[in-house]
Amino acid sequence: xxxxxxxxxxxxxxxxxxxxxxxxxxxxxxxxxxxxxxxxxxxxxxxxxxxxxxxxxxxxxxxxxxxxxxxxxxxxxxxxxxxxxxxxxxxxxxxxxxxxxxxxxxxxxxxxxxxxxxxxxxxxxxxxxxxx
Length: 132
What we know:
With 132 residues, the chain is of the alpha+beta class. The chain is 14% helix and 34% strand. Strands 1, 2, 3, 4, 5, 6 and 7 form a 7-stranded mixed beta sheet that branches. InterPro entries: UCP032025.
């Protein structure tokens, strides 16, 4: 199973705005990181899982990593957001690894997550208590 990474959807108001940002990039979307992951070889076929509101909300397949020429790296992503079954995930700086067996499953076409119907404050509190 491939290795994945997680990252906060910084400056994204909602998963819909994240999707719009990703889809606005033709060919590939890029985010900048300071350090190349040490386990980059294990990430072939992996995805970047986006955190929004302390929940994993979607993933973007990783196309690869590339030097920017300024001492940083680009994480090259497919310009799409694949919805996943939401799963609680604490906020963190930078990115973190996510093992394949711990990654939430994708939602099917037209399938909705039952958690989407809950008010965000209630969902956040239930997640904090470990009940969802």
